Amino acid sequence: MKVIRASALGMCFGVRDAIQMTQSIDRSTDVTIHGELVHNHQVLVQLRERGFHMLAEDERRCMPATSSVLVTAHGISDKQRGRFVAAGKQLIDTTCPLVKRVHETAQRFERDGFHVLLVGRPGHVEVRGVIEDLASFDVIASVDDVESWPFSKLGVVCQTTTPPRHANSVLREIEIQNPRADVRFNNTICQPTMERQRALEQLCRMVDSVVVVGGMNSNNTRQLVDLARATGISAWQVQSATDLKREWFRGCEKVGLTAGTSTLDSAVDEVFDALAALR
Question: Which residues make Cβ contacts (< 8 Å) with residue 183, sequence separation at least 6?
Fold first, then answer.
């Protein structure tokens, strides 16, 4: 069985920078990571072993007891930053600059009188951080959420990991249902996400099945799985080589391999070697 890697896969610069920043922190026991630094189990285990305190994603509204708080790559709202500063916390900011761009664009739209429409997954930490600073907004998960809004100006932004085709479909529906509104779209999908999705589409034309390596709660990893399955081939998500099952690949001559943007290079290599060893 031949294993073919996607031309673009795995960890993005934002995740690499966040992990690298944690490596420069000497007194890790004085730091609480506000949620999951990245949605990657292996990384989280390594951070715990180094002594970092961590809040679970559903505990983000809690005030950490440590003197320092590390803001994850997914970002937080300006309001949350203000709460930390008011409590005397020192902030260590690893927010991805492309996530910051979503915040800035949404806030600029609102300042200019637009009702903000955020295309993304409701409840996702990145989405929550953006909308907490907005007064006039809706989160659009799918075209089914689009309606005719009573606003003359609509500003559309995207969660960074939104599939471009999905964003375009939602935008078209917004324009159809709001023909009299001034609809402005700012494409805030991150470049690494788009590169990995394009590479996967090309890969799917070359293989019988695809394996996607990444955390089970990683949104961009799930998007890759969904995208592969939408092409009509089987796709399997794993966090490590131990998750692979031989029966998935019966009858397969060529298997594709890709990975989410928070996946370690070592995890990708491990899965590649395990797939190549299957007979």
Answer: 154, 156, 171, 174, 175
pLDDT band for 279, please (50, 70, 90 cuts).
low
Separation CA 175–CA 182 (nearest Å) = 9
Q: What DSSP element (H or E) covers 81?
A: helix 78-86
Q: What is the distance between the alpha carbons of residues 174 and 156, in angstroms, rounded to a whole number?
A: 9
Identify any residues that bridge with 158 across adjacent strands, giving them in sequence order. 119
pTM: 0.86
Q: Are the C-beta atoms of 113 and 153 separated by less than 8 Å?
A: yes
Chain position carrying tokens 């609102």: 110
Q: What DSSP character marks residue 114?
A: P
Using one digit for the tens of pLDDT, what is the confidence trace for 62-81?
Answer: 899 999 999 998 999 999 99
31 pairs with which residues across the strands? 68
pLDDT value at position 37? 87
Q: Which domains does the chain carry?
A: 2-9+192-276 (3.40.1010.20), 13-96 (3.40.50.11270), 98-185 (3.40.1010.20)
Residue whose entry in the numeric block shows the structure tokens 């930490």: 125
Per residue, the 3-state secondary structure of 130-192, as one string, reads HHCCCCCEEEECCHHHCCCCCCCEEEEEECCCCCHHHHHHHHHHHHHHCCCCEEEECCCCCHH
pLDDT at 170 over 80: yes
Contact 199, 228 (CB under 8 A): no
pLDDT per position as a tens digit, 239-278: 999 999 999 998 899 999 999 998 999 999 999 999 999 8
Give the separation between CA 82 and CA 199, rounded to whole angstroms.
40
State both tokens at 10: 């795995």
Q: Widest CA span of the chain, in angstroms?
A: 61
